[in-house]
Amino acid sequence: MAPQVPGEMTAIGFDQPGGPDVLRPETVAVPRPGEGQVLLRVAWAGVNRPDVAQRQGLYPPPPGASPLPGLEVSGTIAAVGPGVLEEYVGERYCALVPGGGYAEYCLAHIGHCLPVPDAMPLAEAAAIPETLFTVWHNVFERGWASEGETLLVHGGTSGIGTMATMLGKAFGLRVIVTCGDETKCAAARSLGADLAINYREQDFVEEVKTFTGGKGVEIVLDMVSGDYVARNLKCLAEDGRHVTIAILGGMKAEVNMAVVMSRRYTLTGSTLRPRSDAFKTLLAAEIEKNAWPLFEDRTLRPVMDRSFPLAEAAAAHARMEAGEHIGKIVLEVAGG
Q1: Signal peptide: which range, if any (predicted)?
Q2: CATH topology for 8-128+273-332?
């Protein structure tokens, strides 16, 4: 391992599940990269809803992953493991990781890293991987999105929602989003959403029906589940695809399977974190070829909400849980 890498580092962990206040700094050993891995000196770490769920005890890390929260980071490669070229050391990368991001150093599989150009701030780079990988896989691979189709996204100003809007528009989709107030609706429209529905004041089923002339949307990206599923299906056009990526509104839903059959719906969903390294490497390669150039040339930029120092991760989680954020929350570790 390179001599400039210390033996210990500061990280954010917790002893027992609970509210944001259970998060606290701790001193832990710097991990050593294994076969195909790199060690990133973390500049910034993204904060995501799954981090909150992990802290609450609802989303444990997969086997072999770091117990520390944090699913995306940016920084410079400090050391490489067997099978990775030494030339990577010192280069700027961001990465999708299965855990461990809330720390001064973090392991990543080299196949899950994306190069960060000089023009891209590392704070922005840390705000991209989790939502980009999730949206690309679920909208374009599982949802088979095609140019000219219409996508409905719930939580339009969340990290996922803003990424889905930007990517959808970049690849020729019409995008409808739901938001909780007019300020968020305005923010969603400024990102390119063709229709932003205030779900507290409007029935999104009726608004979608009106906007599409009764046809419905081809794809729903659902983060709510629960009783939203039946309403989502009422929004789908024939041969529509319903893709679930979170269950914020509950795990169970009642579905009229006769409607699913008669309208030829596809119901699918996924969780990215436990997927194999090989799968994520293939996904990263597809993203680097098709979507990453739009970020490299600054055509697309993540929507940034607020940053917090690493030691204030609890405040970052409190902001996310309050639901007031628009775009991504990040933690500053080393900056840059």
Answers
A1: none
A2: Quinone Oxidoreductase; Chain A, domain 1 (3.90.180)
